[in-house]
Amino acid sequence: MARIGYARVSTLDQNLDAQLARLKAEDCGVIRAEEASGASREGRGELATILAFLRPGDEIVVTRLDRLGRDTRDVLNLIHEAEQRGASVTVLDPHVSTRGEMGHVVLTVLGMVAQMERRFIKERQREGISRAKAAGAYTGGKARLDYAGIWRMADEGHGPTVIAKALCCSRMQIYRVLRERG
What we know:
Mean pLDDT: 89
GO molecular function, one term: DNA strand exchange activity
Number of domains: 2
Number of helices: 8
Domain Resolvase/invertase-type recombinase catalytic: 2-136
CATH superfamily of the largest domain: Resolvase, N-terminal catalytic domain
CATH topology of the largest domain: Rossmann fold
Active site: 10
Keywords: DNA integration, DNA recombination, DNA-binding
Protein name: Integrase-like protein y4lS
Helix content: 40-55%
Strand order of the largest sheet: 2-1-3-4-5
């Protein structure tokens, strides 16, 4: 029987330290952590590893339910998978475990709240962007590619493969940028 801690943050500017410290204080023998969105399980390799190696009697421990996921159905499916393997899930804040029947009810409600919170955050973000656009202050997201660099290298005679390698991106992205330029 192992206590397996799982910590997650959504963005690189968030910090895992508080979650890791709390999981260590809870005597988790194994702690897996990652920087990935909680909107779905895609790109969450550490969580997949935990689920793949769960044994009967193991316990997955998270500091808050939203660290496990932001979609109610996904969280409930995850809990179901853990239970199918004879394992349980414990949330530290508020302290709820799937070991008891009431824990399932509370986790379902908490999962629904987490999903609603995610929707509220997205709505507030859209409203903020709309206000910024109306005020002329919205500049859009951060540019992911150096368009000027791509065009300069293309003008120097470099092909898409060389440019893609130099800028650490795919050739398809280079083709799109060059096509936009005309």
